[in-house]
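Q: Joint fold for the lines below.
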Amino acid sequence: MAVTIREVAKAAGVSTAAVSKVLHGRGNSVRVSDVRAAHIREIAESLNYRPNAVARNLRIRRTHAVGIIFENFGSFANGPLYYMHLFEGVGGVLFKNHYRMTILAEIAHDDVLSSLGDGQLDGVVWCKLTRDPESLALIHSCPIPIVAMNAPAPTVPTEAVFVSCDNEGGIDLAVQHLVALGHRRIAFLYERQELDTPDRQARLEGFHDAMKARTGVDATAEDVLEWDWLLPEFSGWWAAKPPHTAIICWSERTAGNLILQATSAGLSLPGDLSIVGFDSTQYCETTTPRLTAVCQPIYEMAAAAATTLLAMIDGMPPIQSSFTFPCTFDVRDSTTTPRSPLNAENPS
Amino acid sequence: MAVTIREVAKAAGVSTAAVSKVLHGRGNSVRVSDVRAAHIREIAESLNYRPNAVARNLRIRRTHAVGIIFENFGSFANGPLYYMHLFEGVGGVLFKNHYRMTILAEIAHDDVLSSLGDGQLDGVVWCKLTRDPESLALIHSCPIPIVAMNAPAPTVPTEAVFVSCDNEGGIDLAVQHLVALGHRRIAFLYERQELDTPDRQARLEGFHDAMKARTGVDATAEDVLEWDWLLPEFSGWWAAKPPHTAIICWSERTAGNLILQATSAGLSLPGDLSIVGFDSTQYCETTTPRLTAVCQPIYEMAAAAATTLLAMIDGMPPIQSSFTFPCTFDVRDSTTTPRSPLNAENPS
DNA sequence: ATGAAAGCGCTAACAT
DNA sequence: ATGTTAGCGCTTTCAT
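A: Joint structure:
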């Protein structure tokens, strides 16, 4: 069907080795004179030769393709924009380096090994890899390098590299901001469905630490709100006149839904309730009020992940086994001074 | 390095053909007894054998991977959500059929052929393929099947299949809606940067047709607004007291930016100006006011594209060379009756 | 500088 | 029912 290197060689009256060298420039044990090279190129062109990458991949044992695993590909478009940026950031680096990016849909753990070990991928970026023993075992027996994004670095050293943001530090920025505005009773909110998400867990821990550090008092169970997906619990919670004047949401999207619920419950935002989100994307500009949020440097993180992965593929041992990026804080319109600071520092 | 089918065969005392048949179930000229099969499986397991897909791909000349080309991958996250849905829709079908999806970044036309003809892809979904002769030539010489999404079907028949929505019909729904509300002077808005986008062109044509049909008068040049990316022209335009009472935006994101500009210029929406977008995603729920918009059935379109492509890969000639899906209309809060219908039908 | 030939790991026709 | 073998298209070592 397609014209092969052999046919080009025959037509040009040279060996396949010469054609390979000239057209693909690989190998250094073969030398071809300029005239011959030009001739070969001409023949190849006229025959409309297209190199077969699959054959080459088999031979050199490299595909220049890396996989990217999302745990929930199906809800990409309605999920946080965060994923998209991550995706773009990784893709940007890969494409610049002439790698392809292959999406691996949510796959059963059993299938992962066969997917990652079938020779089609040179490496993989794994988003939200969990820390359970099963995953660690998997990392261990995986024949290609892995970089995990937004996953907590495991306590035992592994072959994989972990890239994430400083979730605790990010939440501390949020608490700091709210406390500076005068808030004392602050709640932390997440969806029941996100219970297992490593980032959520880290942020909750950060919340406890920060509350202790910034207000001097420990957060209690009633300061932690675990609600359902679209936060139907809100109106009941608000009706019970909670002492809180601000809510920190574990994610951007959660904050968006909270704004929706609060608005439709008749609250005036941010006067009645200050709201902070996590992840500061374009999305935060489109909510009303615009969402104040912790910002993780997604593009830098994605670029670090991809760059490190490519280095590993090239056989260089990673410099670090984990990278943690500091967060920043973007103040927008969803936070303000509390209407009535319940636990003001200096009640006169 | 990795254990091959040959080593399994040797360890099990059988032929490679037997191993291949048992483990991968391919070929029908080979029969293996149950006991032998069980034994082979056992050996393979104990040797931790992993089939090499690259070798198999070379042999069977199939990769079970399809490519997806976006013209502007880099601005995915900040672009219209439309792309994401498309992406998910295509991916959903592919994954269900055990195909992989490979992202092809914006590539120079010269590179396209080498990318699509290198044997690594069984087919490709091409988003926003333009209709120029160059692209048509490319389609013609492309060795794998192509499905074009949201591209106008060319007038001359091609090997590719085209999937798009009825842009004209969609715009007509918008005009109908506005006219029913009492609007007579309606503008059509797009960004200068989108000049070449086929969808935009089709929608503008649809605008002209619909205005003629629904109001009886032709739209003029001043009814067509070609502004810069973030619509900085808005305030000047509005200050000049244009006769228009409504604007139809070529895209969802354009409409969002228009809302931002109008709001910051002090307009009260939708009272001062009715706004309609194109593409009705989650994004339309997050603007203030919520965006009334034409809705194209993206998931169905994506599914049709992917399904058709897979059929073509399997050698079945496509039933149709183009699929056009009807649009629907989602009324939200960004449209209302005009404050003062300038050209009311029956001025008393 | 150039060519011959041996595989990469797998599949499938063919032979037994 | 099972084994032998010839490739898929390319790279690369080794002779010349």
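Q: Anything notable?
A: Chain B touches chain A at residues 2, 50-55, 57-58, 63, 65, 73-74, 76-78, 81, 84-85, 87-88, 91-92, 95, 100-105, 113-114, 117-120, 143, 256, 281-283, 286-288 (CB under 8 Å). Residues 2, 4-6, 16-17, 20-21, 24, 26-30, 51-60 of chain B lie near DNA strand C (CB under 10 Å from a C1').
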